[in-house]
Amino acid sequence: MHYFFWLLVGHITGDFFLQIYKLWRLKRQSGYYLLLHVWLYTVSLTVTLYFIDLFAWWKPVVLFISHFIADYLKCYVFSFRTSRDKLLGYALDQIVHVAVLVMLLPW
Predict the structure, then answer these.
(1) Counted domains in the chain
(2) How many CB atoms are located within 10 Å of the residue 38 CB?
(3) Is the whole model's pTM more than 0.85, yes or no?
(4) Which of 2, 43, 45, 87 has the fewest CB atoms within 10 Å of its CB?
């Protein structure tokens, strides 16, 4: 549980605190900004993994790829037009991100 807590702190830092409003908006308009967001997220969690002694070279790769795919689908493939759809998209996005963190724990 201790490790999961720190991974959640890294996730919240990378997915929310390091993503200013301008970046949040621009990542929906340009793949460059989406990659920048995913890179910041990955760096945040890589530092966290290193800090809690769970770092392995392949974990940042998994984090980067899975986060990119989830956010790409949310930003460019699925259209969330209504407030309800946007909330559902947000919830699914967060579930995917947290599920990846849970899968990284035993390794």
Answers:
(1) 1
(2) 23
(3) yes
(4) 2
